[in-house]
Amino acid sequence: MLILGVLERQPEHGYAIAQAIKGRSEGLLSAKEGTLYPALHALEAEQLLESSEVEVGGRLRREYRLTVKGRRELARVQGDWQRQIRAVSAVMGGKT
């Protein structure tokens, strides 16, 4: 879900995805290389992402972007996440 959320804004390469997750979560969440790249490959195999090589500063990088299917999946998981937040908040006595 986090990877899809990062890529909702724009295509990114792996390191930038990891940095976005860390930055947007104010350091509470991280995406380590050992888990990030297998997750990217799995999302690509599920056709939620597509990738291509792009040249950046004279170096080739693999850049990932959401597919239409990936955007639909992101919307679905965001809805699920919001329902979970409301449920936990209700149990904990908070208001949504």
Task: Note the main attributes of this structure.
57% helix; alpha+beta; Arc Repressor Mutant, subunit A; three-stranded antiparallel β-sheet; 96 residues; globular; 19% strand; single chain
Q: Architecture in CATH?
A: Orthogonal Bundle
The proportion of residues in beta strands is 15-25%
For the terminal residues, how far apart are their CA atoms?
22 Å
Query: For this structure, what is the CATH class?
Result: Mainly Alpha
Tell me the CATH superfamily: Winged helix-like DNA-binding domain superfamily/Winged helix DNA-binding domain
Q: Structural class of the helices, strands and pairings?
A: alpha+beta
Low-confidence stretches: none
Give the SSE order as H and E letters: HEHHEEH
By DSSP (H or I, 4+ residues per run), the number of helices equals: 4
Strand order in space, largest sheet: 1-3-2
Task: Let me know the average pLDDT.
Answer: 94
Radius of gyration: 15 Å
Major β-sheet profile: 3 strands, antiparallel
What is this structure's SSE topology?
Layout: H1 2-7, E1 12-13, H2 14-24, H3 33-45, E2 49-56, E3 59-66, H4 68-92
Antiparallel strand pairs: 1-3, 2-3
Question: What do these coordinates show?
Answer:
By secondary structure, the chain is α+β, with helices and mostly antiparallel strands. The protein has four helices and three strands; from the N terminus they run αβααββα. It has helices spanning 2-7, 14-24, 33-45, 68-92, and strands at 12-13, 49-56, 59-66. A hairpin with a 2-residue loop joins strand 2 and strand 3 (59-66).
